[in-house]
Amino acid sequence: MSAAPTEIQSLIETSGLGKAFGKVQALDDLSMSVPPGAVGLLGPNGAGKTTLLKLLLGLLIPSSGSARIVGQSPRTRSGRLTIREHVGYMPEGDCLLPDTTGVELISMLGRLTGMTSEDAMTRTHEVLDYCQLEEARYRPVTGFSTGMKQRLKLAQALVHDPQVLLLDEPTNGLDPKGRRQMLELVADLAQNHNKNVLLCTHLLPDVERTCEHVIVLQQGKVKLADSVAALTKADGARYRLNVPRGAEAFTQALPAAGVILEDHQDNRCTIRLPDESQSADVLFQVAARCGASLESVELAKSSLEDVFLQAIRADGETSTPASTQEVAP
Amino acid sequence: MKASTHAEVYRPFTGELRKHPLRPLTLAWSGIRLGLRKKLPAFLLFTPSLITALVGAIKVYLMYSLSEPLKEDGSLAGMQMTVALQKVLGNVAANVVLFVKTSAYFALLAMTWFGAGMIADDRRMGANLLYFSRPLTRGGYLLGKLLGLMFFGLLTLGIPTFVIVSTAAFASPDWSFLRFESEVIWKTALYASTWILTVSTIVLALSSLVNRKTLAMTLVFGTIIVLHGAADVAAELLDISELKLLSLPYNFEVFADWLFDQQLSRADDPTLSLIALGIFAGSGMLLLWRNVRKMEVVG
To answer: Contact at 8 Å (CB) between A205 and A46?
Structure first.
C-alpha cells in the first residue's frame, strides 16, 4: 500500500461546503474538521450524510465551498484519484454486480484499485474470511442475504487496505445478529487496526458502540460535534432520584427550593440543581420537609440520544425525526 | 458449519499498488467473463457465425483445390469444368467480401446481446458507485466497456474472417492469394474494424441511456431498423436519395461496395456514407461520454 500523501492531523476538513439539488439544499455552508479515529456522522434521513460522503469522494460536485480528505481535494482529478486510492467506500444501496461471485467481484475491484492479480486474489480471500463470508465466496452475489451483501460491501471497501473507511449505513436492513456482527467488525477495524472510520448512520447505538467522536448533521448543517465521552459525561447539576414514599409531595416542593424537575415517572425523577456547585443536600432537606424518603441519589449521565435530541431541537425543532424512533432503548 | 477454532483476523496488505495498472483491461475482462457466463445465448449467437465461417472456408478451399488441377490439365473439358466451377463458386475475393458482409449482421446480433447490459446493468445496480470510488477515470471505464464489447465483435466477425482469409492464403497455390489479392485482407480488416467500432459505440451509447438490458436491446434494434425503414421509405416518397444516409446498414453497404471495388449505383456517394458513419460513431461516443460523466458524478 502506498503511503498517504500527507500526515493527517484531521481526517476531513470542509469549509463553507454546500450542495443544492434544485431547490433542496442538502448541505449548507458546512465547515467542520473531523479528527482521525472512529467518527460517527449522525443525522435523520435527509440530513445530508450521504451527500457529504459523495462530495468527499468527488462523486458529487459541491455548489459552494471546499472539502479535503486525506489532505487532498476531490475537486482536482489527481486529488480525486489519490483519495479513491486511500479511501474505502461502502455505499448504502445494493450496488453489487449480478451474476458475479463474491470472489470475482472483490478481486476485480482490487485489481481496479491497482493490485496485481495475485495480490488481489490473496487479499480477496483474506477480507472475505475477515467479513465471515468464507463459505459463500463462490456463490453468486444475487443469492446473498441482506446481511451477507452488507458484509460483502464492507469487504470490497477493505480489499485495498485503505487508511480511511467511509461507511454509509452499514447496518441498514440487518437483523440484530447481523447488526452486532457488523458493528463488531467496524469496532475491530477502528480500535485494533488503526482504521479511520467515518460511520454514517441514523442509529445512535451504532455510534455509541463504535465511535469516539460524533458529528450531528441536520438539514445540511452541523448541529453538534464532539467526542462521545464529552457529550455523555455526567452533568454535575443533574441527578436521578428514587423516591419510594411521598414522591408527589416531594416533586411539588422542589420548585420552591429552586430545583428544576426535568422528568418524573412513578417513583423516579430527574432533577437539575440551579448551580453545579450546589450541594445535593438541598434534596434531602426538601424530602425531610415534606415527609418523603429518598432511596437513591445519583448523578445523571446524558445518553447520546438525549444529546442528539437536544441538538436537533436547539433551533426550535419540535418534531422528533423519524430516525430517532428507531433508536433502541 | 464453521469450525469453532476458526478466527477471522484482519491482515494488513503489505504489497504495493501499481502506479499505472491496466484498469480498462481488468474491466473489459470482467465484462467478457460475465457475458460468456450464460452458455445458451453464447452458443446460439456464435454458432451462425461459426457455420458461415466453416462454409466460407470450405468454399474457398474447394475453389483452389478443384480449379487449379483442372487449369493445369489444359484440356477443353478441364477448361469447361473450370468455368462451370467459377460460375457456381464465384471468385475467392468476392466470396471473402460476401462472407464479411453477411457475418457483420451476426456480429450486430451478438454485440447487441452482450453489450446492451454492459452499462444499463451498472446503472440499474448502482455499480458505478463501486467503480468510481476506485481510482478509475471515466475514460478508463469507457475504454474498458468498449474493449469488452469489441471482443465479442472480434469473436463473431474478426476471428471467422481471419479463418477464411487464412484458408485462402494457405490453399492458394504458391501463396497466390497473398501475392496477388492481399489487398482483400487489409480491406476486410478495415471493414470489420469499422463495423465493430461503430456498432460498439452505438450499442454502448444506447445502453447508457436506460437501466434495463432488454430496453437497451429494444432501443438498439429499434434505432437501426426504424431508421433504416424510415430512411428508405422517405427517400422513395420524397425522391431524395440522401435521406438513405440515415440508415446504418445502407451506409455500410455503400462503404463495402466502394472499399471492395464493386459497382456503385449512381445515387450512392461513398464520401457521404463515410461521413454519415463518422457522425453515427461520433454522436454515439459523445452520448456515451456525457452519460458516463453523469455516472461518475452522480448528481
So the answer is: no
Q: Indicate whether A169 and A25 sit together in one domain.
A: yes
CATH of the domain at A272: 3.30.70.100
Please indicate if any CB of chain A lies within 8 Å of the CB of B16: yes
* DSSP percent split of chain A into helix, strand, coil, nearest 5: 35, 30, 35
Query: Could you tell me if B39 lies within 8 Å of chain A, comparing CB atoms?
Result: no
Task: Give the ipTM of the model, two decimals please.
Answer: 0.82
Tell me which chain A residue has its CA closest to the CA of residue B123. A95
Q: DSSP secondary-structure letter at B154?
A: I
Which is it for the CA torsion A164, A165, A168, A171, positive or negative?
Answer: negative
For residue B135, which residues of chain A lie inside 8 Å, CB to CB? Answer: 81-82, 84-85, 112-114
* Domain's final residue, options A172, A200, A225: A225
The answer to whether residue B237 neighbours chain A at the CB level (below 8 Å) is: no
Residue in B closest to A75 by C-alpha: B297
The radius of gyration computed from the CA coordinates of chain A, to the nearest angstrom, equals 24
Indicate if A276 and A293 belong to the same structural domain.
yes
10-residue stretch averages of pLDDT, chain A, 329 residues long: 53 90 88 90 86 91 91 90 92 84 93 92 92 88 89 93 92 87 91 91 86 88 84 77 87 88 85 81 87 84 74 55 34
For residue A109, give every residue at least 6 positions away whose Cβ sits within 8 Å of its Cβ, in sequence order, or none.
A156, A159, B130, B134
The answer to whether residue A49 neighbours chain B at the CB level (below 8 Å) is: no
Put simply, the chain A residues between 137 and 176 with a CB less than 8 A from any chain B CB are 156, 158, 160-161
Interface membership of A126 toward B (CB under 8 Å): yes
Q: Are residues A250 and A108 in the same domain?
A: no
Q: Record the cell numbers describing residue B105, joined without a space.
A: 449482421
Please, which residues bridge with residue A166 across strands? Answer: A89, A198
Quick one: A126 and A176 in the same domain? Answer: yes
Residues in chain B: 299
Other beta carbons within 10 Å of B90: 14
What is the domain extent for residue A113?
12-225
Q: Answer yes or no: do A156 and A287 share one domain.
A: no
| Residues A42 and A109 grouped into a single domain | yes
Domain count, chain A: 2
